[in-house]
Amino acid sequence: MKKSVIAAFAVICLMTIGGCSVNPATGKNDFTAFMGPQQEAQIGAEEHPKMIEQFGGVYDDAELTGYVATIGGRLAANSELPDLEFTFTVLNSPVVNAFALPGGYVYVTRGLIALANSEAELAGVLAHEIGHVTGRHTAQRYSRAMATGLGMTVLDAWLGGGTASQVAQLGAQLYLASYSRSQENEADVLGIRYLRRAGYDPYAEADFLQSLGNNSELLRQIYSPDSRERSQDQFFATHPQTSERVLNVIREAGGNPASEQMPRLRDRFLDQIRDMVYGDSPEDGFIRKQTFSHPELGFTFTVPQGYRITNSPKAVVAKGPNGAMIVFDGAPKPPRYMSMTDYLVGQWAKGTRLSDVEAININGLEASTGWTTVKSNGQSREVRLVAIRFSKHQIFRFQMATPTKWVANMSEELQRTTYSFHKLTEAQKAKLKPLRVRIAKVRDKDSVGSLSEAMAYVDFQEERFRVLNAFDANAAVTKGQRVKLITE
């Protein structure tokens, strides 16, 4: 008998023994033998603090978090699990994302909230995540993964090998990575149901998904398609949704945009998000034109013109012309008592042949530098390393990669970048403020172009403004209209 047949037979037997239960939300027989409601609540409670820590903590605005919790509570009360104690959390993250844990834990980032344009759009996101909870999708995936693992264990016993279990483990990890399309569709159906029951326009959810798609496209324009710095957009990575699919769900449920005139509550939503932090927070550091500053760690530096700076939890990356790049980060477990030259040669670049190693002083800070040549994709690059002792417990580092043929032209600019690094004074720290969402009312002479100029960016100003306000390429503003701007 073939291995795949035996494995399938074992899994079917285990699923039959484990049993199924009727889900009150979907009316389907769900295989959740390995995770009941009590286990779901326990898992959610255990993972909740981990999610908060991973996504930058809870956003510190009691009024906004209370507003989101009120919307979520209204939707949950109209679900099939009104007695479940849902917990709604606004995460202090610029990443555009929302997700749910079993047991009624629902999360939405401030990055996602800023992209929405009405209370109904935000409600659509929350309703969809509630649908994942009431649909018991995590319990289904976990139980099926457990059944698969047990089935493979039986197969191992019959065949006397360990390969099957390894395959099962890998398969379970892949299966748990994101929701299946059928589960996403089910969450769409449930979410639209809860929106209608709570009195929201269900078409708002489709409009928001369109904004998410436009935001993804804008990020592709700003960054390269495969760039790791596109981490601000993570919603579609775990939610393979499209606005057209949501519209199909509404149509199948008998929806008609002409007959459904439910409120979207745009003004109330804009009042709530006024002055919300946008983008990086002080804990992450700020990008302002060619300068990166970190008020909490207390340093700043400036990269040459033509370089684009992006910030991530692990490093600050500045990409320049002709494939040039600057990577700035902190040394992991920096030694306390070691000269920077010894650190550069003996630890950071250990095993690498460095040229022109020398000790230098950068604005009163001990530092050391050297360079080497590497080949990447058939191109020769000079990589200059700079290690800076910032304090007894902290070493900061620059890696500056430049195509060899451009080194002579760019060396002076990179030297200026190195010596631009310095500690911030208390007065300088106090002046550094995060970007915020501002609400403006359109005046007589305002246009999309003139309003876009107020956006606190040096590139893609109009494109950012249009995506933020859900304006298509031909949309114009009208007098008295309220719009979102991003300024200090």
SSE diagram, text form:
Blueprint: H1 3-18, E1 21-22, E2 29-30, H2 37-54, H3 62-77, E3 87-91, E4 98-101, E5 105-109, H4 110-115, H5 119-134, H6 137-159, H7 163-175, H8 181-198, H9 203-222, H10 235-238, H11 243-252, H12 266-273, E6 277-278, E7 286-288, E8 291-294, E9 299-302, E10 308-311, E11 316-319, E12 325-330, H13 340-348, E13 355-362, E14 365-376, E15 379-391, E16 394-403, H14 407-420, E17 422-423, H15 426-431, E18 435-441, H16 448-452, H17 461-468, E19 482-487
Parallel strand pairs: 3-5
Antiparallel strand pairs: 1-2, 4-5, 6-18, 7-8, 8-9, 9-17, 10-11, 11-12, 12-16, 13-14, 14-15, 15-16, 18-19
Helix pairs in contact: 1-6, 3-5, 5-8, 5-9, 6-7, 8-11, 9-11, 9-17
Largest sheet: 7 strands, antiparallel
Total helices: the number is 17
Shape: globular
What's the total count of β strands? 19
Main sheet: strand order: 10-11-12-16-15-14-13
Distance between the termini: 68 Å
What amount of the residues lies in strands? 15-25%
Arithmetic mean pLDDT: 83
Enumerate the spans where pLDDT stays under 50 for 5 or more consecutive residues. 5-18, 145-177, 225-231
Q: Specify the helix fraction band.
A: 40-55%
Structural class: alpha+beta
Cα-atom radius of gyration: 27 Å
Q: What is the total number of structural domains? A: 3
